[in-house]
């Protein structure tokens, strides 16, 4: 029998020199300190990995930690009751780990500035006790040759920390996080490792860098909408941008304002699962559009990951089945309630939790429909109906016994049926991201009214362009609102994190 050779024991753990706690009364200086600490610690891990590939001592473990922000309050400070975030609910010590300060610079600066203003206390920057996984230390877009790992004589997990699923969860956002005696309370809805996990998933699913994502996100379940969005954005860029600075397509293909992408420009060899397109403004103030495909699983997957970017709003634009005989193909449905039969969020957000309509979003959508269609007041009811949207997880529900689903749809007063809207709204509620839904009736299966082939082509050509224009105008209205007005108090519980 061949004698098995065991690796030598790990002799020690090597880390960068510890950094002392630093107190700041200026939000910008605090974020700069976070950036310097993050750069140093991730650089240490990358350098250590490279050194091992060149023959460095394989019997040491290399470890570096995420930066951390801490805030301590000692009184029940009275804050502006109109504000949905930016304040601690009780006295105590609050912390959160931080990743990618470069990506979140604007967000972090705003959150810290509001907290310091509301409570009159400094923030403390230090090293946390949470190790940075090696996988998350590499610069975005880095390609690690498999041959390098082959030259390292021990398993990577012996030498570096790797992603830990025990610390990559949504307990804080779900309101199920349990604080042990003596532990600090969470300052933000997501930990650094949870954010890093989603940033890597976003690149994978959308074929665009997280840095390109904008704060106003449109989701759709049809490529027709994406095609129309791309035509609109490219035309806008060719005409100078109209306030937008660039258009980014999958593969991180950037067309700056004032330029035109060549017809034979670069193309992806493989289309991603959920391609994303970004019409960019300074400060991430533009519009991102994602084709999520069909089904609640996709809807949950993409919103789970986009949520860590802390967008200001997301909307669902897509097609639905009209459930009322008085509806016509091409009519719009503005959701103000949801029947949740998607089931993908049942373990995270119980179905008994109501998903409220958000006034700011509803008004923006209704005003956009009125502007684009030229109708207003009572006449607007000719083309748009406000009501309950039902979302299911069975695309072929028509093939089952009709008594069950039809009875539930009738009892709920649902006026439309789809497979994504309630999931997107429910995850918006769960992650405190303002949400809304505007659907277009594309068929009426309960009334035997389906599109014939010729009708379908004409319908999509005509209606998608108008629907998308409405979505863009609604987003531009929302973008014109102050953040503190858009982020509704309806989305906050009585024990919330201070970070939005």
Task: Summarize this structure briefly.
The chain is α/β, with parallel strands linked by helices and 500 residues long. The protein has 13 helices and 17 strands.
Topology:
Layout: E1 12-14, E2 22-24, H1 27-53, E3 60-62, E4 65-73, E5 92-97, H2 105-119, E6 123-131, H3 146-150, H4 156-159, H5 171-174, E7 185-186, H6 192-206, E8 216-220, H7 223-238, E9 246-249, E10 253-256, E11 276-280, E12 287-291, H8 296-306, E13 313-322, E14 332-341, H9 359-373, E15 384-392, H10 403-411, E16 414-418, H11 421-431, E17 435-443, H12 453-479, H13 483-486
Parallel strand pairs: 1-3, 5-7, 8-12, 8-13, 13-17, 14-15, 15-16
Antiparallel strand pairs: 2-6, 4-5, 4-6, 9-10, 9-11, 11-12, 13-16, 14-17
Helix pairs in contact: 1-2, 6-8, 7-12, 8-11, 9-12
Nearest-integer average pLDDT: 89
Tally of distinct domains:
2
Q: Compute the separation of the termini in Å.
A: 61 Å
CATH second-level architecture of the largest domain: 3-Layer(aba) Sandwich
Poorly predicted runs are: 1-6
- Quantity of strands, as a count: 17
Radius of gyration: 25 Å
